[in-house]
Prior knowledge:
Strand content: under 5%
Order of helices and strands: HHHHHHHEEHHHHHH
Low-confidence stretches: 1-10, 12-17, 19-36, 240-249
Number of strands: 2
Helix content: 55-70%
Mean pLDDT: 81
Strand order of the largest sheet: 1-2
Structural class: mainly alpha
Radius of gyration: 19 Å
Amino acid sequence: xxxxxxxxxxxxxxxxxxxxxxxxxxxxxxxxxxxxxxxxxxxxxxxxxxxxxxxxxxxxxxxxxxxxxxxxxxxxxxxxxxxxxxxxxxxxxxxxxxxxxxxxxxxxxxxxxxxxxxxxxxxxxxxxxxxxxxxxxxxxxxxxxxxxxxxxxxxxxxxxxxxxxxxxxxxxxxxxxxxxxxxxxxxxxxxxxxxxxxxxxxxxxxxxxxxxxxxxxxxxxxxxxxxxxxxxxxxxxxxxxxxxxxxxx
Length: 249
């Protein structure tokens, strides 16, 4: 009998694995929490980082270079679409965090720009929402950040942000809204998003790849700097300050 693929079964499996991972992070002893940024899984992380670089060499960088050769209007439209597709996630997590104004702004932007599937910014000049994800929601709830993790294809994360990515992937309302689109459009969504983001940060990523004595360490530092900036309003003031101090140390 032919097996029928059921997307909800995959979502349940992913959610279960992430729940186990989150339990492990929350149960981490204080000494391990304090050394999380010391990269306890460095050997495995470096191996995965090397794999990700290989994928980038043969797939992402060539695709991003080709995209950068298209007319500027095409690149702008794709960037607009990627940003638009993330708005339900921002609205959802903003609501969970009690940031109701930000949730309302994200919802309004998503609704208006949905008239063009996000390809054109019809809200240009209007207030834009602050990006929020489930990793930030977990930080607001007091969940520790966990160890530094390099995930295959997904790149740099902390345990907390990786769990957040998984929950956002499973629960993002955009996935339900896109269910009515043709299969070809749904399947193209992730490759388009990844290629657009790679093209947007083309020079910065290539600088890390080709002009660093240790690309792994530089990518790790850049991740923490970017992530700490996003978490400034999600953590207690003392914890946020400690995060920046430890980064610069």
